[in-house]
């Protein structure tokens, strides 16, 4: 990965964040989701936290807690403290739902 590619990923992440904050329509959220995915592929590790949040809330994509948990874990590995706390809560929720007999993938 080159420095230019990393900068490109950060620029995509900034654009995705702006779309999420400044717009509330589904089409903008879908574009932000696509930009966040491209940012991660370009090496912007902060994109994992954004994708996790989007999967958790169903912003620009279908709500999918297992994918949110995976991206929170990846963000936590790269030093995001908020993602680390959220990942812990989601793992506790998964354990609770499993113990209760609910399918985690339904939520």
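^ Assign residues to that structure.
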């Amino acid at each position: 990965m080159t420095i230019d590619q990393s900068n490109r990923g950060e620029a995509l992440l900034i654009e995705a964040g702006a779309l999420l904050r400044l717009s509330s329509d589904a089409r903008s959220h879908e574009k932000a989701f696509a930009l966040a995915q491209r940012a991660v592929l370009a090496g912007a590790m902060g994109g994992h936290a954004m994708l996790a949040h989007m999967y958790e809330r169903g912003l620009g994509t279908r709500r999918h807690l297992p994918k949110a948990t995976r991206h929170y874990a990846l963000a936590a590995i790269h030093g995001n403290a908020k993602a680390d706390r959220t990942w812990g809560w989601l793992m506790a929720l998964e354990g609770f739902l499993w113990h209760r007999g609910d399918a985690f993938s339904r939520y």
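DSSP finds five helices and no strands in the chain.
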